[in-house]
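Retro notes, structure queue

What went well: the backlog is down to a handful. What didn't: a couple of records were mislabeled last round, so from now on we paste the full input next to the output in the thread. Example, using UPF0735 ACT domain-containing protein DEACI_2608 from Acididesulfobacillus acetoxydans:
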Amino acid sequence: MVIKSRDFLIVSKEILPEAILKTAQAKELLAKGDVDTINEAVERVALSRSAFYKYKEGVFPFYEASREKIITLSLILENKSGILSQVLNFIASVRGNVLTINQDIPLQGIAHVSVAIETAGMLDIPEKLLEGLGSLDGVRKIEVIAQS
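Corresponding output:
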C-alpha cells in the first residue's frame, strides 16, 4: 500500500477563485446540517456540481486542518507587565495546550514570542483563538508560522 503525501498551503481567501470559495461554503453548509444534500448546498451558494466535485477533496477551512494538531504562532507583544500572562491565560481559557514558549529579549518596547499549541482539546476552532488573541490589549501582531 502506498500512502501519498499531500502538500498544504495557508492562503488568504481574498486571492482564491470564486469556485473554491463557494466549494468551501457548500461544504460548511453540509457540515452544519443547514442543507441535506450536495444539490441543495451548491444551489444555495450558486455553484455547479462539477466545480464542487472538482474541488471538494482539496478545500477545507483552516480550523479543520488544525484540529487535533499543533500550531505554532509568532506574536509581537508590547513589552509591558502582564501581556504574555494574558496571552497564556487566554490560550488556557479555550483549552489550548501550550507546549513551548520562546521569547526574545524585548527591544524598543516590543517582544517577539513564539508559542506552540496543541489544539486537540480546544473548545472552539483555532480561528477563534487567533481572533481572541488579536483582541487582547498589547498584542500587536499574530502569525501562524507552522502547523503539524
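Agreed that this is the format going forward. Reviewer comment attached to the example: The mean pLDDT is 85.
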